[in-house]
Design a protein that fits this description.
Elements (H helix, E strand, L loop, with lengths): L2 H15 L2 E8 L2 E8 H9 L6 H12 L14 E3 L2 E5 L5 E6 L2 E6 L5 H11 L5 E6 L6 E8 L9 H19 L18 E2 L7 E2 L6 E2 L12 H6 L4 H4 L4 H20 L11 H14 L3 H11 L6 H15 L10 H16 E6 L4 E6 L8 E2 L2 H13 L6 H8 L6 E2 L1 H7 L9 H6 L9 H16 L11 E5 L6 H7 L9 E2 L7 H10 L2 E4 L7 H11 L3 E4 L8 E4 L3 E6 L14 E5 L12 H13 L8 H10 L8 H9 E3 L8 E4 H10 L9 H11 L4 E4 L2 E8 L2 H4 L1
Helix pairs in contact: 8-9, 9-11, 10-11, 17-21
């Protein structure tokens, strides 16, 4: 054992020993907060308090069951909070302090203490059981299970702890339920999960309990994922990733099975009728532990001259069924038999997943040369149905559709899967290196692009559900500078399907749908977006979620936002907002962007993932926004009215007394006298915003606001 490992174990044991458990009790309608160590808590539960409220509860509970009655002293029993440590603020709210790495698993509705003790003994069989206590009712057991990150640490922030705890709860239920002969009561995992104070003379406690190691999830799971289903496969050979080792192992096993099958045949030679060999070969493959589909696939390759694939599959399937003991008469109905056979067939022949980003079913055939997933369209479904019929499964198209559109098909989130597989960051700043490919004179471009990139990844992870990534880089330069190409290569090839440069502002519903459908939206030719469209774009940029209505439904769904925005333009005068344009990072590209250098996407996104997970700021602060407002002035559109105002007036200093106080209407009338064009009165509001932007000295009187300006004479203009 290395010194580092010994030290980590020492630190972890010390942390567990000093673990603080929150206790809240009510006194005269007032909550009293306190904390205690695990050892102190276990000593308290061995003996009851003077009030004997828990014993009274256990005596009264049978008579209260099924009635509307309530134990009158129930509120006097304190509540215990072992999951995380909180503190109470002055305003009465809860403030997260630290996560304890404890998951509560509850088994309720037991018959009595005998069954409770039995459940405790079962829970003690797992080394991850930190404690097991009989509940306050005497008819339940509360199991405390330890979890930690792979390095032995625990999440630091409340948000990370919540995500970690939710995933840990699922794992705990899956691990403990097969061990316990009573159903686990499923509860929504929460850091504030609590139990009532109890009495247990012999509580189980294992202070050195091992911890389930769990990687930090990036988002809350919404069902069994494709990854979890793959890992849940019982056969270890099926769980193998397609690499050299698994291929070599299966090859050796198949060749050995083929040799033993040939030994049972007298004088059989290659080219003879293959049918007599198939049954003994299938039997030997089954005995070797080779999955059925793998055995069929290798037989078809080895005997490539044999064309009756359907007959070969039927032989192998029947032999595997007989060897598993399926030959006995079934007590199931025909419908049950069909459903089970169909499920077995689909899981054996195909890998199927539901892409939650695109709302599409995807599939690939097991043991096929096609390693990528394809969309499961109508043509593919019909092919699957025909294959099922060839194997003797009397299933209709609707039976297959029911399976495909059910919880039997795992959900697949491509961006979460991608971020999960990134690996550790090597410490090199690749995000700013990527920004340096854009040649520009903006002094803060590298750092602003860095924040925007972190924000994009943070929104993929679902870190900010209250705000959208409202910041948008805008690349401005001549044609041929590869601006659009640069935008496209920001996404890795695995996620490039989530890129689009064709946002349609004419359909607001479709535009909002893009927020949950794409990862990166390129606003190509940004200067062509009208003033009205820019107003809607501002709304779209800051929207934290997408509100959509699916086809043939009337309800509105709130879907998670993934999309971030980037823009390109050939012209500089493209910003029309007089308030400062803080949402845009405008840079003038002075040379063609180098897009021919390969990008290490794994490390690029590993850096962003590492930064976000370690709490680095991914939003623009006030300093950043002030810089943007100043730098974006170069790219602001100057309206004809502003041109006219600039030519007719200058800002005067009240101290110099070289101007005069004018109302907005007076300024407007003066401008009207200097042009042949008829100025609409609606321009008055725009004029007011221009004066405010100029920081013109003003004062408000009862009749309206006055502005201090100096009229520019025709001589001064010359």
């Amino acid at each position: 054992m290395t010194f580092a490992l010994k030290f980590r174990i020492f630190v972890e044991n010390k942390r567990i020993k000093n673990m603080k458990i929150g206790v809240i009790r009510k006194e005269n309608a007032t909550e009293v907060w306190s904390t205690c160590t695990m050892e102190t808590f276990l000593e308290k539960v061995k003996k009851e308090t003077k009030g004997k409220y828990i014993s009274q509860l256990r005596e009264r509970l049978p008579s209260l069951q099924g009635s509307e009655g309530r134990f009158i002293h129930l509120d006097k029993i304190p509540r215990v909070y072992p999951v995380a440590e909180f503190r109470r603020t002055k305003d009465g709210s809860w403030k997260f302090k630290q996560y304890n790495g404890i998951v509560l698993v509850e088994v309720n509705n037991l018959s009595g203490l005998a069954e409770a003790e039995f459940v405790k003994s079962k829970a003690a069989l797992l080394p991850q059981t930190f404690a097991a206590l009989v509940g306050s009712s005497g008819r339940s057991v509360k199991i405390w299970v330890r979890f930690s990150l792979p390095d032995g640490s625990l999440p630091d922030t409340e948000e990370q702890a919540s995500l970690f705890h939710a995933q840990a709860y699922r794992v705990a239920v899956q691990c403990y339920q097969p061990l316990i002969p009573f159903p686990i009561t499923l509860k929504e995992p929460s850091l504030k999960q609590s139990i009532r104070m109890t009495v247990d003379e012999t509580p189980y406690h294992h202070p050195e309990a091992a911890a389930f190691c769990l990687e930090q999830p990036v988002a809350l799971s919404d069902g069994t994922s494709f990854r979890e289903q793959k890992l849940a496969e019982e056969n270890p050979l099926v769980r193998m990733e397609p690499n050299y080792d698994s291929y070599h192992t299966l090859t050796v096993m198949y060749q050995a099975a083929l040799r033993r099958a040939l030994e049972t045949m007298e004088n059989w030679q290659r080219g003879d009728d293959l049918v007599p060999l198939l049954a003994p070969l299938a039997e030997e493959c089954f005995k070797s532990g080779i999955p059925e589909e793998e055995a069929v696939y290798r037989t078809l390759r080895h005997f490539s001259y044999y064309k009756d694939e359907t007959g070969l599959r039927a032989t192998f399937h029947n032999v595997y069924a007989e060897m598993k003991g399926f030959g006995t008469r079934s007590s199931m109905t025909r419908e049950q038999d069909t459903a089970l056979r169909l499920e077995e067939f689909l899981k054996r022949r195909y890998e199927i997943r539901f892409n939650s980003m695109t709302d599409d079913l995807e599939y690939r055939e097991r043991n096929s040369i096609r390693f990528s997933f394809m969309t499961l369209d109508k043509r593919a479904r019909n092919s699957i149905a025909i294959q099922a019929l060839k194997e003797g499964i009397q299933a209709w198209d609707r039976d297959i559709d029911r399976f495909l559109h059910s919880d039997y098909v795992p959900r697949y989130n491509p961006v979460e899967e991608y971020l999960y597989d990134l690996g550790e960051w090597d410490g090199r700043d690749r995000i700013r290196e990527l920004a340096d490919r854009v040649v520009c004179r903006h002094p803060h471009w590298r750092d602003l692009f860095y924040r925007w990139f972190l924000s994009m990844v943070a929104h993929w992870m679902g870190r900010d559900k209250q705000h959208g990534n409202a910041t948008t880089p805008v690349l401005i330069g001549p044609q041929g500078y590869r601006k659009s190409t640069f935008c496209r290569i920001l996404l890795p090839p695995e996620l490039r399907f989530g890129y689009t440069d064709s946002l349609d502002f004419s359909s607001k519903r479709d535009a909002e749908r893009y927020l949950g459908r794409f990862f990166l939206v390129n606003l190509d030719e940004f200067d062509q977006i009208s003033v009205t469209q820019q107003a809607f774009l501002k709304h779209l940029l800051q929207k934290p979620s997408a509100s959509i209505r699916k086809a043939y439904t009337s309800s509105i769904l709130e879907v998670r936002r993934y999309a971030s925005f980037i823009a390109t333009s050939n012209h500089k005068d493209l910003l029309s907002d007089l308030s400062g344009n803080r949402r845009f990072i405008c840079v003038e590209v002075t040379a063609p962007i180098d897009t021919n250098v390969s990008v290490n996407y794994s490390q690029l996104y590993a850096q962003a993932f590492h930064a976000v997970m370690h709490g680095e700021r991914y939003w623009l602060d006030d300093t950043d926004e002030a810089l943007l407002k100043e730098s974006n002035e170069e790219f602001r559109q100057v309206s004809p009215l502003e041109h006219l105002l600039m030519s007719c007036f200058s800002i005067a200093s009240p101290e110099a007394k070289d101007g005069e106080w004018l109302m907005a209407m007076d300024i407007f009338n003066h401008l009207q006298s200097k042009t042949r064009e008829k100025l609409a009165l609606g321009k008055l509001n725009h004029l007011g915003r221009l004066l405010k932007k100029w920081n013109v000295p003003n004062k408000r009187l009862g009749k309206g606001s006055l502005y201090y300006l100096k009229k520019v004479s025709d001589v001064e203009k010359v």
